[in-house]
Amino acid sequence: MEDQLIKPQNLNLSREQLAMLLPYLLVAVGAMVTLLAGVTRNANNKLAAAGVGFLTIVAALYSVTAVWGEPSITLFGGMLAADYSSGLFNALLLGATGLVLLSSYSYLEKEGIHYAEYYSLLLFSCLGMMLLASSLDLIVLFVSLEVMSIGVYVLVGFRRTDVKSNEAALKYFILGSAASAILLFGIALIYGATGTMNITELAVIAKTNPAVNPLMSLASVLVLAGFLFKVATVPFHMWMPDVYEGAPTSVTNFMTTGLKAAAFASFMRVFMNMGFGDNLTSTLNIGLHNVLWVIALLTMFFGNVIALTQRNIKRMLAYSSIAHTGYIVVGFISGGRSEYGYTSIVVYLIAYVIMNIGAFTIVALVGERGDRNTDVQDYAGLGFRHPLLGFGMAVFMFSMAGIPPTVGFAGKYLIFSSAVQAGETTLAILAVLCSAISAYYYLRVIVFMYMKDPIRDSRVAFTIPVTLVIFAATVATLSFGLFPSMLIHAAKKAASI
Amino acid sequence: MEFITNHLVSLVVFTPAIFALILALLPGDGETGKKLLKTAAIIFSLVVFLLSCVLYQTFDSTATGFQFVERHEWISVFGISYYIGIDGISLLLILLTTFLTPIVLLGSWNAIEQKLKAYLCLLLFLETGMLGAFVALDIILFYGFWEAMLIPMYLLIGVWGGKERIYASTKFFLYTLVGSLLMLIAIFTLMSMHKAQLGAYSAALTDLYKVKVPFNGFNSPQTWMFLAFALAFAIKVPLFPLHTWLPDAHVQAPTAGSVILAGVLLKLGGYGFIRFAFPLFPQAMHLLAPVFMGLSAIAIVYGAWVAMVQPDIKKLVAYSSVSHMGFVILGLFSLNAIAVNGSIYQMLNHGISTGGLFLIVGMIYERRHTREISDFGGITRVMPIFAVIFMIVTLSSIALPGTNGFVGEFLILLGAFQTHKIITIVAATGVIFGAIYMLWMFQRVMFGPIQNNENKHLKDLSLREIVVMAPIIVAIFVMGIFPNLFLSKMDVSVKAFLSQMKI
User: Fold this and answer.
1) Which one of A64, B32, B447, B471 is separated from A341 by 20 to 30 angstroms, measured CA to CA?
2) Is the pLDDT of residue A3 over 60?
């Protein structure tokens, strides 16, 4: 009891802890400095904000690599993990934010919604993601989830004069708050049932008392629902297509990649620590398994089938992103019962982030002011008018469809082979069939780009940062697809506790 | 030199892809630029053909096992390696691939005007994909080539094809994808069985052959896994009733696409059965052999009947493919030394003669922009050289003794008769129907008076077109008269294959 009181000596940070904490501190400071840029009335404040934001990300990435592979410790009395997993996810989230930031500048200019605050919100949200991915305490988890979400709520409505954008923001805010409340209620019940909020302590309790505790079961279901809302599985996906379509494309890019990766990272940390996927002996585990099984199937099926009918690329990618969520949930089902179960989640998340950033950056680039030119028809003839752009988009589409040699195939390989190893062959078969459905609408983009004649002659205005982002994503998609060993090793390390 | 002999197979496989990249960098504007591109592509593909001839020369047809083996670590956590090598069976299919590629490149000299550079690059990439699938001894490497090869073929049909090209190409892609995805699940099951039984991950074929896949009757893992593999390969072959993508794809594809599709891609299905499905799941194969033999007999007869009533020459040839490939499957499943030899030989024949037929259809289409049989008649009078060449290829397709087709079909029927008499008798009627539809078509197109005025001034074959067809004509006779030139190369491999299949 004595050392739980707040005393000055408990607040001391050792050198190692400070080094581990540095990425978070840098991003926090960067976010605030960027905010200041918005206050100035200088016409160049956007450039300054973008510059500061980008430098912050670079610095934070550097500080992440500086402590890469150091022995894992915990921060703030066990509230925050500083291990390989948090390092990997910090790098992934920072990388995603950095690429989104690079691709945002010209997009915001084009849309006429360029304000310096954008970058600040992006960084705050990024901070929330990083904390979320490494939180070891349910309260920290909740707070960081909110930090992440609130920034994004505002970003979604960033096109202030646009009805769709407003609708999206409001919808997301209301539904998101409801989901947060459910999550919070679940957390409160967990505290009531066990008397602790610390995930490692909870894990010990869960493993030593496998008997069913009604309160704990209810709490697990509520927490699960909260997470599933954030990652948008069926039946918690209703908000997502509207929000993805209404939000400015660069924000959609940020949401599909960073937000989803962070939510999944946190979900995985809780799920894995609690040993929910380790066996199917306790009633709770069996129940969770069955619930997730059904949810995974529904998510893959509906995501893909509805995506088939979409003509708008943003909406199509939104539904396809639901389907990808379904594949990742398959990873949770086979997680603890196969050698590379959790690894497959990490690999898939990385693959997903890479190919989505690429695809959404292209959508933002091809789109015209007011998000016009985002229908599939508008891509007609693009492949031959801009060969390299077309090649990039084709690579991302084939990667999302899981055709080798792309990183998307590597991800699907791990997910499905783990499912087979865990004895979930039926689910794996259903999953590949869903994935075959998805090939149809990804191919449609290719069909329009290469096989149809353009309706009108619209040229794409390239800028250096955007070109860099697309180039980087293309290279990463192909090189990680051909040589995934490094990726798998890193993911394996991140997925072992 | 040391390097070349050590990496000969890799060289053969990847040279086309490297050449494609070089081609992409060459300037391709204007008439001279286009000519340069086309010439370069043909020279490149000839280089590949010469390399594969070196392979043929240095191949030791008396040695058992795989030759020119190369193995490097790739994704070691899953035991996946860059593991390639060839035996007599893959050697011949490699030769077929590299032989047909320069021919189709020369054949499409005038056919493709739009987006020429992309077209040539894709054809060369496709060649790498096909060759890779023939040499891969690692099942995941094979799967990679198998799937990656879809992309160039899909684009070839979809971009340069006919009116319904988008429908046809998408259908082709999705059909093949569904089959191969289920195979992928079976591969995963197999690999995790290997891990469970032998303690390590491995995707190497030689290791996977050692896995004992549980088998007890129809409802057992081995049967289901065999069916998953068989589905992927049967779609590719294509076996009745999974053949419906083929006529669409063939009719819509540009000539080069059709030739490669019929000539090489379909062979991958047969090859997949020999290399993967059969030896990995021998008991299931024995259990299901009668079913597949029955289906192939249906395919032979049904394909021939449907071909008979086609008004479109290209569609007729496409359905004849269904019929001819039915023979291949019949021979393979009868699992008898003569029939298996015949099947492999039939794969080569079909590549040559159906490829030749598609080229011929392409030539006549370029002149008249129609493929309807009823638009023609009496062509012999205006195009005598064409008529001779067409006749030879037609006779090869209906398996006249002295041509290549005879050797294959005769061996298959001879072998299969020993295994399953009734099915073989049914299948043998397909030979007769084959003669009927081919000769009837030939008669309506070539003989009789010229009905259509537009046909009166057709030009006979140009020198380029004769050069395109000459190697095919030579191959038809060489393979028909000296079959041992090729049979001897695969004899040992076929024996090894059959001994693997004993249970």
Assistant:
1) A64
2) no
Q: Is the peptide bond before A23 cis (omega within 30 degrees of 0)?
A: no
As a whole number, the mean pLDDT across chain B is 86
Q: Dihedral of CA A178/A180/A182/A185: which sign?
A: negative
Asked if residue A1 has pLDDT above 80, the reply is no
Provide the 3-class DSSP secondary structure of residue B75.
Answer: strand
* CB contact (8 A) between residue B188 and residue A447: no
Cis omega (within 30 of 0) for bond into A405:
yes
Residues B354/B321, Cβ–Cβ less than 8 Å: yes
> Among A86, A94, A35, A132, which residue's Cα sits nearest to residue A346?
A86
CB neighbour burial string for B20-56, b if at least 16 within 10 angstroms, e if fewer: beebeeeebeeeeebeebbebbbebbeebbebbeebb
A478 touches chain B (CB under 8 A): no
Mean pLDDT to the nearest integer, A471-487: 90
| B148 closest CB neighbour out of A340, A404, A413 | A404
Paired tokens of A110: 């084009």
The 3 state secondary structure assigned to chain A is CHHHCCCHHHHCCCHHHHHHHHHHHHHHHHHHHHHHHHHCCCCCHHHHHHHHHHHHHHHHHHHHHHCCCCCCEEECCCCEEECHHHHHHHHHHHHHHHHHHHHHHHHHHHHCCCCCHHHHHHHHHHHHHHHHHHECEHHHHHHHHHHHHHHHHHHHCCCCCCHHHHHHHHHHHHHHHHHHHHHHHHHHHHHHHHCCCEHHHHHHHHHHCCCCCHHHHHHHHHHHHHHHHHHCCCCCCCHHHHHHHHCCHHHHHHHHHHHHHHHHHHHHHHHHHCCCCCCCCCHHHHHHHHHHHHHHHHHHHHHHHHHHCCCEHHHHHHHHHHHHHHHHHHHHHHHHHCCCHHHHHHHHHHHHHHHHHHHHHHHHHHCEHHHECCEHHHHCCHHHHCHHHHHHHHHHHHHHHCCCCCHHHHHHHHHHHHHHHCCCHHHHHHHHHHHHHHHHHHHHHHHHHHHCCCCCCCCCCCCHHHHHHHHHHHHHHHHHHHCCHHHHHHHHHHCCC
Whether residue B189 and residue A425 make contact (CB cut-off 8 A), yes or no, is yes
The tokens describing B55, both together, are 């392979």
A17: exposed, middle or buried (C-beta count within 10 Å: 0-12, 13-18, 19+)?
middle
| pLDDT above 50: residue A2 | no
- A340 vs B contacts (CB less than 8 Å): 77
Beta bridge pairs of residue A198 = A137
**Helix ranges restricted to H, B209-312:** 221-236, 245-252, 255-260, 266-272, 278-280, 282-308
Q: Would you list the DSSP string of B298-314? A: HHHHHHHHHHHT-SBHH
Contact A187, A138 (CB under 8 A): yes
**What per-residue confidence (pLDDT) applies to A376?**
82
Its pTM stands at: 0.90
pLDDT tens digits, one per residue of A161-218: 888 888 999 999 999 999 999 999 999 998 888 888 888 888 888 777 766 678 888 8
Query: Strands B67-75, A80-82: parallel, antiparallel or unpaired by DSSP?
Result: unpaired
Contact A420 B118 (CB under 8 A): no
**Furthest CA-CA distance within chain A:** 75
Q: Of B137, B140, B133, B129, which is closest to residue B80 (Cα–Cα)?
A: B140
Task: For A68-126, write each residue's pLDDT tens digit.
Answer: 888 888 888 888 888 888 899 999 999 999 999 998 888 888 888 888 889 999 999 99
Residue A416: which of B166, B173, B188 has the nearest Cβ?
B188
Contacts of A398 in chain B (CB under 8 A): 151
DSSP code for B84: E
CA separation for the pair B74, B81 (Å, rounded): 5
